[in-house]
Amino acid sequence: MPNPGALAFTPVRMVDVELTEPLRPPPGDGPFHLLLRRDGVPCATVRAGAAGRPMAAREFREALTRATTGLLPAGLLGADGLLPAGGIVAAPPADPGSRPSISVVVTTCEPSPGLIRTLAGLREQTSPPLEVIVVDNRPATSGVAAFLRRNAVDGVRLVEEPAAGLSRARNRGLAIARGELVAFTDDDVDVDRRWVEAITGPFRDDSVACVTGLVLPLELQTQAQLWFEQFGGFAKGFQRRRFDLVEHRGPGRLYPYAAGVFGTGANAAFRTATLRSVGGFDERLGAGTPARGGEDLDIYLTVVRSGWALVYEPAALIRHRHHRELGELRAQITDYGVGLAAMVTKRCVVSREERWDIARRLGAGALHLLHPRSAKNRAKGPGYPRDLTRAELRGILAGPFAYWKSRRAA
């Protein structure tokens, strides 16, 4: 029987709003998912408007004002207490300074329009990368090389990694990268034109070894896509954050083991030499292995526990196309559970110190997973399917066994 929430779902329109330009409501009917930018830099999102009707000008400005309260400098509001209809004053331009060179690695295993969009976005960067490396992880049958030729895609380095596994594909790109930095993204994202500029900025601090960025939904056209956002999505907010094991610890008792606290592997950059020195991505983890995932949190933990800092930079924006169908979402959430538990199992196996760290957090982890008002669960709406929660728990229970299977295979 269909879930009642699916019957009532109305597609949400995605709209970018530049606050330094005249603030006019988007044409057409709502609801709207508004991404607010100041001088091109994302600063907030807000859901506004109702199905079947356009937004009035004042209603639009009220929504923008609520979303930016506390985020913008004082004195920007007009006499009516709202953001001015003509837009706010642009911020003084920042000194871009010198930036390290960066190689961008895109992993793929099949031809798709998404791959073409990802590569097109990388060609349109305000700060072009030194090189774009496309790693074909299924070269015998994928047809990626011919697909790129048919679509006249040039200016990329196409390399093959025949051994299956996302971590293997990323490590292949890492092995040949020529930039001082190496960034990783997927073949199903739209890359903001300032992404390279933003993700390289924090590396001016020599103590930073990794930078992750903001991931927002490319579309919210189906109930499954909205449920993924309620599950947790990829976005980690609009405030730059620094993470380490000394002064800049993340919130809660689970830090640094809470899934997703550092960001997602589809939007991350590293100092190339540092990533090589710690062995790159663990090839027993990640999509394409029995462990199915967990490689991104694993490498973030390795970087932070090695004494480096990790910075979450929301100005480094990509948009991800979430799965549209419930079955695909259920499989994805199961994989996330397997990957998380496999990663935790790996950390326990290889490090006695971490084994005790993790053991002390088991109670907090259970509450985080199961309590309806935990930070993980409180965003789930009343129609969120219990089946998805059960799918994640099944994955977590399977994760330790999946890790041992992956370890034997490797």
TrEMBL record:
The keyword Cell membrane does not apply. The keyword Transferase applies. The lineage of its organism: Bacteria, Bacillati, Actinomycetota, Actinomycetes, Micromonosporales. It comes from the Bacteria. Residues 103-215 form the Glycosyltransferase 2-like domain. It comes from Paractinoplanes deccanensis. Keywords: Glycosyltransferase, Transferase. Pfam families: Glycos_transf_2. This is Glycosyltransferase 2-like domain-containing protein. Belongs to the glycosyltransferase 2 family. Pathway: Cell wall biogenesis; cell wall polysaccharide biosynthesis.
